Amino acid sequence: MPLPKIKILAITGSTRNNSSNFRILNYISNHLNNEFNVEIFENLAELPHFNPDLDTENPPQAIISFRNKIEQSDGVLICTPEYVFSLPGSLKNALEWCVSTTIFSNKEVGLITASASGEMAHEQLLLIMKTLEAKFDDNTQLLIQGVRGKINAEGEIIEEETKEALQNFIKNFENHFL
Questions:
Q1: What is the DSSP string of 103-158?
Q2: Which residues of 43-64 are buried (b: 16+ CB within 10 A; e: fewer)?
Q3: Is there a domain that residue 1 lies in?
Q4: Residue 49 domain-assigned?
Q5: 3-51 pLDDT, tens per residue?
């Protein structure tokens, strides 16, 4: 009897269709070991604005569904752009809905910021995920600067250094599970 596949929830921080971040997650999904099953979550725009008054025993259904996807996964990948030297509001909103839970506690995560610069957003992403007690290290986080010149519309990595960095990231992420 084959072992169940390792379930990975991949969250793109961009709400743009076919964004560079989505293409990177798709690239990773296609290059992970066959023992992994990746679901890319693209519905950040559909999550309600965080409101502590709604973060009760019965939060909105979209939040219950989002939290369940995280909880039922073995690991989470996040790939996000940087907007105005910060995380996109939609991604920060989604993560705020997780603060009152323990769904990220000791959860293996891979964190990628892929943007023009990305340094500030990457720093914020690492801080937020550390606060949520997610498990990651220097080998399972990556900053890709100038991403638009490194990946084409078909999702192919066209810059060798970035391809090598992603291959190392993938190998290191897999090693946390295998």
A1: TTTT-EEEEEEEESS-HHHHHHHHHHHHHTT-B--GGGEEEEESGGGTB-TTS-B-
A2: ebeebeebeeeebeeebeeebe
A3: no
A4: yes
A5: 789 999 999 999 999 899 999 999 999 999 999 999 999 899 999 999 9
